[in-house]
Specification:
ten-stranded mixed sheet; alpha+beta; about 375 residues; 2 domains; globular; Fumarylacetoacetate hydrolase, domain 2; five-stranded mixed sheet
């Protein structure tokens, strides 16, 4: 694995029992893999991309080329998605909803956050945690907040009928386990967002899950929600992995609903931050978020959907009241027992490894390897 990340330390606790899809970097180029009961198979002759491999479920591992055991895998893991769209849901937890309101009220100025946080928590903290989005109670809370002058567009998507769903990252631009993860060099208030990510096939069926880091720039989005694209989509700003765990009798959507997602940040100066995001506190069911994503859109190659995070770091790092922001050299680890651990080191997006493998380059590579059938070439 890249850097000092050991693959065995990042695998799910029961990795020998599950069924997983991933991608590895071979000498010839990227290849999708299937991991079945701890055995790894190169599936590039079955389906040249991970998106196409998902479409072929259920899979026969014996149709692939054996690569040995997962614990002995010598090839570096890539992000487990390739041609899937990468979508994300925002403000799906009460705590993160309040933090978005704070960013907006502070206009991206971290020095004002502490005072605003206290005032907002006192007024709506308990109410927003118990209300069901889109319910009559939510409408009544909205009316009260408008009357108090505390209403926000972030509260609209937190407790209103419509979820926030946005495009996080271009296809093929995500990074995987052990890769550098990027923040804008001109951001001064930012944080990781540890999330579970659902994987949905081209028919709209939710087939599995993985871990993700939806890096957030609080100063940019806080200045204006119209800067969401600049806050969210930068070089190396989206990490996924280590593998997609497919749903089966031993791992279901209920495991996602009840997951505890841990976050650890270790800074180069000895700083350490730990937190936990409990998925049972999500305000909208994960499959409802999938439904809203699909409501009037098709995704023929499928999509990956970030479900949002409870975690919004406010622990001071450098000075009282400033809260948290990243430093170059931070190591971010996101973990839950059934999906494993995703580890990345923070750099600026300018200094991160450039994204160079686009769709045209991938198709050229696959064609040169003889992996595109006549039908696939026509559709490429």
């Amino acid at each position: 694995m890249p850097g000092d990340v050991a693959l065995l330390d990042c695998l799910p606790a029961d990795w020998r029992d599950g069924l997983f899809i991933g991608r590895v970097q071979t000498a010839d180029g990227p290849s999708p893999i299937l991991v079945d009961k701890g055995q790894v198979y190169d599936m590039s002759r079955v389906a040249p991309t991970a998106a196409q491999l998902v479409q072929k479920l259920p899979l026969d591992a014996t149709a692939g080329e054996p690569l040995g055991t997962l614990e002995g895998l010598a090839l570096p893991l890539l992000s487990p998605v390739d041609l899937q769209c990468v979508k994300a849901c925002g403000v799906t937890f009460a705590v993160s909803a309040l933090e978005r309101v704070i960013e907006e009220s502070a206009r991206g100025d971290f020095t004002k956050a502490s005072e605003i946080r206290g005032r907002l928590e006192e007024r709506v903290g308990g109410s927003i945690r118990s209300v069901v989005p889109g319910s009559p109670e939510a409408a009544a809370l909205k009316a009260a907040l408008i009357e108090d002058g505390l209403w926000s567009q972030y509260l609209e998507v937190a407790i209103g009928p419509d979820a926030e769903v946005f495009t996080k990252s271009p296809i093929l631009s995500t990074v995987g386990l052990g890769a550098e993860i990027g923040i804008r060099s001109d951001s001064t208030w930012n944080n990781p967002e540890p999330e579970i990510v659902l994987v949905v096939d081209g028919t709209g069926k939710t087939v599995g899950a993985t871990l993700g880091n939806d890096v957030n720039l609080r100063d940019f989005e806080g200045r204006s929600a119209l800067l969401l694209g600049k806050a969210k989509d930068n070089n190396a700003s989206c990490a996924l992995g280590p593998l997609i765990r497919l749903f089966d009798d031993g791992f279901t959507i209920d495991d996602v609903r009840n997951a505890e997602v841990g976050l650890t940040i270790d800074g180069p100066e000895g700083y350490r931050l730990e937190g936990v995001s409990s998925m049972n506190q999500i305000s909208r069911d994960p499959l409802d978020l999938v439904r809203q994503t699909l409501s009037e859109h098709q995704y023929p190659d499928g999509f990956a959907l970030f479900l949002g995070t409870l975690f919004a770091p406010v622990q001071d790092r450098d000075e009282p009241g400033r809260g948290f922001t990243h430093k170059v050299g931070d190591t971010v680890a996101i973990a839950t027992p059934r999906l494993g651990k995703l580890v990345n080191r923070v750099v600026t997006s300018k200094d991160a490894t450039p994204w160079t493998l686009g769709v045209a380059a991938l198709m050229t590579n696959l064609a040169a390897r003889g992996l595109l059938t006549t039908k696939e070439k026509e559709n490429a």
